[in-house]
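ok, trying the design again with the full structure, not the truncated one.
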């Protein structure tokens, strides 16, 4: 099966990860991380893809977090 190419916004960074994921919940993200761990794979996350560097490049599991756009908890004591 052919791998889909992923690029950053400027298309200077191009790569073809083993799999691409777009989780819609924390549970889905946790399942992706657990699977990667079980298979000995690495997970790289890309937000908006605005980095000029190869920080999000991976041959393994690529995760885009664009669908994870909800704030679920704020700790008033830390502001986080």
């Amino acid at each position: 099966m052919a791998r889909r190419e992923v690029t950053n916004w400027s298309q200077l960074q191009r790569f073809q990860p083993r799999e691409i994921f777009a989780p819609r919940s924390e549970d889905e993200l946790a399942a992706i991380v657990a699977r990667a761990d079980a298979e000995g794979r690495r997970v790289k996350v890309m937000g908006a893809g605005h980095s000029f560097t190869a920080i999000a490049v991976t041959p393994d599991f690529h995760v885009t977090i664009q669908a994870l756009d909800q704030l679920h908890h704020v700790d008033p004591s830390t502001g986080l």
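Keeping the full-length input from now on. The beta strands are 6-7, 14-15, 19-21, 43-46, 61-64.
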